[in-house]
Design a protein that fits this description.
The complex is a heterodimer of chains A (422) and B (338). Chain A is mainly alpha-helical and 422 residues long. Chain A contains twelve helices and nine strands. Chain A is 62% helix and 8% strand. In chain B, 35% of the residues lie in helices and 18% in strands. The termini of chain B are far apart. Classes of the chains: A mainly alpha (422), B alpha/beta (338). The interface between A and B is large, with 52 and 54 residues. Chain A: InterPro entries: AA_ABC_transptr_permease_3TM (IPR010065), ArtM/GltK/GlnP/TcyL/YhdX-like (IPR043429), MetI-like (IPR000515), MetI-like_sf (IPR035906).
Chain lengths: 422, 338
C-alpha cells in the first residue's frame, strides 16, 4: 500500500530572486531601474539645490512679463509690450512655418532628384549625383550662411529701385520685388471682407480667424467632395457599361466656378508691393532670413530624401517593371502606378526621420537672424531674464512635441500605405 | 542550502549639493591664467591683431587684473563671447571675468546675479546711417530696417524708442558685430544701432568712414563695465579695485612710464598706498603689496589705455567726453585708496 504524498510545496525564499533563473532577470532589471531612478533623482535634486543656492529657484513667472523686444516676422499681432509667452508663441509659429515649407519643398526636390539619379541619361544622372554628394557632405549651417550671404551680397538693395534711372526694377509686370532684404510678392486683399473672429480675448494666446479664409477653405472642400462624387459615379458607369464617360470638364468646372464666384463676391484683388520710404510696402514680404533658411534646409534635406527614394525604387524587383511592360503599360505609368506605390513602403519610414531632422535643424535659424523659437524663447527671452534652465527645458519640450506630432502623422500615413497582409 | 542573500539597504548618500563656488581667486592662481570674456571682435575694444594678440580697451582691463593677481599681463585666456552667450559663460564659470562693453542694468545685477564692479566707459546708444540716405534725425527713421545685435540692451532701448515716438521699424537681429557690418554695408539694413562707441569703432574699420554718419540722438544711458558673478566678494573686490587703481592712477598722475620711480620718489601718501610702499592694501585684498603697480604697468593708467585704443589719435577717434576724470568735468570718480 502506498500512500501518495503531495510533492513538497516549494516555498518562496528570498535567495530564489538571485539563484532561480525564473526570477533572476526580473531582479536585475528592478535593481538597474532603481539605480537609474536614483541617478535621475540625484541630478534633479542637485540642480534644484544649486539653483536655490544661486538664488535662482525654478520659476516660470517671467513668462507673463512684457517681452520688451520686437520680432520682425510675426504671423499674429504682436508688439514689444506683449508677454514673453506670446513672443515664444511667435517663435513657435515661425519654426512651424519654415519646417512645413521646408518639408514640402525637400520632398518635391528629393523625389525628383532621386528618380533622375536613376535616369539612363548619363549627364542627368551624374549631375544629380554631384548635387546629392555636395549637399549631403557639407554641414547645413554652412549652406544656410552661404544662402544668406548670396542673397545679401548679390541682390539689389531697396534703394537701388529708387530714382529716375534705377539700377534695379521689379519683376513679372512690376508685381514682384526681389531685394537683398527679401522678396515682396502680391497679396490677396478682399474689399468686401467678412472680417475676423477674435479668440481668447486679451490673453497671450489670442488670435484672429479670418472668415474669408474659412469661406475659401469651405468652398474648396465642398468642390473636392462634389468632384469625388462625380468621379465615383463615372466609375460606377464604367463598371456597369464598360464606357468611361468624359468628366474632366465637369471636374474643372466644379473646382473653379464656385471659387471664382466666391472671390468675386468677396471683392478679391491683388495688393502690389510699392517702394515707400526706406522699404517696399504692401504685398507679402518674405524676409531674406526665411528664404535663406528655407532654401538651405530644403536643398540639404532633399539630398537625403533623394537617396531614400532611390533606395526605395531599387528595392522593387525588376520583374515588376518587366511584368508591367508585358501588360503594355508605358514607362511613365509603370513608375507612377506600379513602382512608386510599392516603393513608398520602403521610403516612408526613413522619410519620417528626415522630416524630424529638418525641423530640428531649423533651430540654426539664428545664424541668419530668423526669429524661430530658439531665437525668441531660447535666445532673447533667455538672455534678458536669465532663466536658462526654464527656457531650455521648455524649448526641449516644444521640439519634442513638434517632433512627436510629425511622427504621429507620418506613422498614420505609413500604416495607410503599408502592405495589407491577409 | 539556506543561504539567504540580504539586500543591503540602498543608502542614498552623498546627495549634498556641491558647496558654493570656491574662491575664484584661488582658482585663477591655481590655473595660472585668467579666463576673460571679451567680444568676438570690436576694433578698439577687443580684437586680435595681426599676430593674434588681443588688444583693446576692454582687453586692457583683463590684462590689468591678470597682472595684479598673477603678476603676468599675458596670462590671460581670452574667451570670445556674443551678446547672447556672455552671461551664460560667466554664470557657468567658464570665464572668471566679463569685460565686454556690457551695460550695467538693474536686472542684470539683481536678477541675473552679477556684480558690476564699476564703469569703465560711459556710453549711450546711437544710430549710424549711410550719408546718401539723407537722414538727419533718428525720428526720420519711420519704416527703416534696423540691424541690432541680439541679446543686448540696445534691442530693448530700440523697441522702446520707436514705440514711444510712434514710428515703425523692421528689426534684423544679428549675432555679432562682424555680421552686422556685412549686412549694413550691403544695404540689407538702412541703420545700424549699438553703443555710440561701438558705432565709432565699427565705422573706423570701413573702407569709406566718411560716407557714414552718426545721428545726433543718443537714446539711452549705457554705463559699460566689467562684471563678475555674485557670491564671491573677494574676487569682486580684486577686480573692482584693479579698475579703480588704473582710474586713480590717472587722477594722481601715475603712468606706466613713471610708476617704477614715483613709488619711492613721491611724498603723496595716496600714491604710496596705491603703489604699496605704505600701508597694507594689497594684503587686505589677498595680494602682494605691488599689485596695483603691476596693473598700471600692464597697459598704463586709464588715460593711457583710452588714448592708445580708442582716443582721438586712433582711427576710432572718441573724445573723452563723459569719460574724463571728475576733476576735468567727466564722470570718472574712483573711491579713495585708504
Amino acid at each position: 500500500m502506498t500512500t501518495l504524498t503531495d510533492p513538497p510545496k516549494e516555498q518562496f525564499r528570498l535567495s530564489m530572486l538571485l539563484y532561480d533563473t525564473r526570477y533572476r532577470s526580473a531582479t536585475i532589471q528592478v535593481i538597474a531601474m532603481l539605480c537609474f531612478m536614483l541617478l535621475a533623482a540625484w541630478l534633479i535634486n542637485n540642480t534644484a539645490q544649486n539653483l536655490a543656492a544661486l538664488g535662482k529657484p525654478i520659476d516660470f513667472g517671467f513668462f507673463s512679463e512684457p517681452a520688451s523686444y520686437d520680432i520682425n516676422q510675426r504671423l499674429l499681432e504682436y508688439t514689444s509690450r506683449d508677454t514673453h509667452l506670446r513672443a515664444a508663441l511667435m517663435g513657435l509659429l515661425n519654426t512651424l512655418v519654415v519646417a512645413v515649407l521646408g518639408c514640402i519643398t525637400a520632398t518635391i526636390i528629393g523625389v525628383f532628384v532621386g528618380v533622375l539619379r536613376l535616369s539612363s541619361n548619363w549627364l542627368v544622372a551624374r549631375i544629380m549625383t554631384v548635387y546629392v554628394e555636395m549637399f549631403r557632405n557639407v554641414p547645413v549651417l554652412l549652406w544656410i550662411v552661404l544662402a544668406m550671404a548670396i542673397m545679401i551680397e548679390s541682390l539689389p538693395a531697396p534703394r537701388a529701385f529708387r530714382g529716375e534711372d534705377p539700377t534695379a526694377t521689379m519683376k513679372l509686370f512690376d508685381s514682384v520685388a526681389i531685394t537683398n532684404r527679401g522678396v515682396y510678392v502680391p497679396e490677396f486683399l478682399f474689399s468686401r471682407s467678412l472680417g475676423n473672429i477674435h479668440l481668447f480675448g486679451d490673453s497671450s494666446l489670442r488670435f484672429d480667424i479670418s472668415l474669408d479664409l474659412m469661406a475659401v477653405l469651405v468652398v474648396l472642400a465642398l468642390s473636392i467632395f462634389a468632384m469625388r462624387k462625380v468621379a465615383a459615379k463615372a466609375a460606377a458607369t464604367q463598371e456597369a457599361t464598360g464606357d468611361r464617360p468624359k468628366i474632366w470638364y465637369i471636374q474643372l468646372g466644379l473646382l473653379f466656378v464656385p471659387m471664382a464666384i466666391l472671390l468675386t463676391v468677396l471683392g478679391c484683388h491683388f495688393g502690389y508691393p510699392e517702394l515707400k520710404g526706406f522699404n517696399f510696402k504692401g504685398g507679402t514680404y518674405m524676409r531674406n532670413s526665411l528664404i535663406a533658411l528655407w532654401l538651405a534646409l530644403s536643398l540639404y534635406t532633399a539630398a537625403f530624401i533623394a537617396e531614400i527614394v532611390r533606395a526605395g525604387i531599387l528595392a522593387i524587383s525588376k520583374g515588376q517593371t518587366e511584368a508591367a511592360s508585358a501588360l503594355g503599360i508605358r514607362p511613365g505609368k509603370t513608375m507612377r502606378l506600379v513602382i512608386l506605390p510599392q516603393a513608398l513602403r520602403v521610403i516612408i519610414p526613413p522619410m519620417i526621420s528626415n522630416y524630424l531632422n529638418l525641423t530640428k535643424n531649423s533651430s540654426l535659424a539664428i545664424a541668419v537672424g530668423y526669429m524661430d523659437i530658439t531665437g525668441t524663447m531660447g535666445g532673447i527671452t533667455m538672455n534678458q531674464t536669465g532663466r536658462e534652465l526654464e527656457c531650455v527645458l521648455l524649448l526641449m519640450l516644444a521640439y519634442l512635441i513638434i517632433s512627436l506630432s510629425i511622427s504621429a502623422v507620418m506613422n498614420w500615413y505609413n500604416n495607410s500605405v503599408k502592405l495589407v497582409e491577409r | 542550502m539556506n543561504k539567504s542573500v540580504v539586500f543591503g539597504a540602498l543608502t542614498v548618500a552623498g546627495l549634498a549639493a556641491s558647496a558654493a563656488a570656491a574662491g575664484t581667486m584661488d582658482d585663477v592662481k591655481a590655473r595660472g591664467t585668467l579666463n576673460c570674456g571679451v567680444t568676438t571682435g570690436l576694433v578698439g575694444f577687443a580684437a586680435p591683431d595681426a599676430n593674434g594678440e588681443w588688444n583693446g580697451f576692454d582687453v586692457s582691463v583683463c590684462r590689468a587684473v591678470a597682472a595684479a593677481v598673477l603678476g603676468d599681463a599675458s596670462a590671460v585666456t581670452f574667451v570670445p563671447t556674443t551678446g547672447k552667450t556672455r552671461f551664460t559663460a560667466l554664470a557657468s564659470g567658464e570665464i572668471d571675468l566679463l569685460a565686454r562693453n556690457t551695460t550695467w542694468t538693474f536686472s542684470r545685477d539683481v536678477d541675473l546675479k552679477f556684480t558690476f564692479v564699476g564703469v569703465n566707459y560711459y556710453d549711450g546708444q546711437g544710430f549710424m546711417v549711410p550719408k546718401e540716405l539723407g537722414v538727419s534725425s533718428a525720428k526720420d527713421l519711420d519704416g527703416a530696417t534696423v540691424c541690432i545685435q541680439t541679446g543686448t540692451t540696445t534691442e530693448l532701448n530700440l523697441a522702446d524708442f520707436f514705440r514711444t515716438n510712434n514710428i515703425s521699424y523692421e528689426p534684423v537681429p544679428i549675432e555679432t558685430n562682424a555680421e552686422a557690418q556685412q549686412q549694413y554695408l550691403a544695404g540689407a539694413c538702412d541703420v545700424y544701432t549699438t553703443d555710440a562707441s561701438g558705432l565709432a569703432a565699427t565705422r573706423a574699420s570701413f573702407e569709406d568712414p566718411a560716407g557714414h554718419a552718426l545721428l545726433p540722438e543718443i537714446i539711452s544711458k549705457e554705463p559699460l563695465g566689467p562684471l563678475v558673478r555674485h557670491g564671491d566678494n573677494e574676487w569682486g573686490d580684486v577686480v573692482r579695485w584693479t579698475l579703480n587703481a588704473i582710474i586713480t592712477a590717472e587722477e594722481l598722475g601715475v603712468t606706466s612710464a613713471n610708476v617704477a620711480e614715483i613709488a619711492s620718489s613721491t611724498d603723496n601718501p595716496e600714491i604710496k598706498r596705491l603703489l604699496g610702499s605704505e600701508g597694507t592694501l594689497g594684503e587686505m585684498l589677498g595680494l602682494d603689496a605691488e599689485w596695483a603697480k603691476r596693473a598700471i604697468m600692464a597697459g598704463g593708467n586709464y588715460g593711457e589705455i583710452f588714448a592708445k585704443n580708442i582716443g582721438e589719435e586712433t582711427p576710432i577717434g572718441l573724445a573723452r567726453g563723459l569719460n574724463a576724470q571728475w576733476t576735468e568735468g567727466g564722470l570718472l570718480y574712483s573711491p579713495p585708496f585708504r
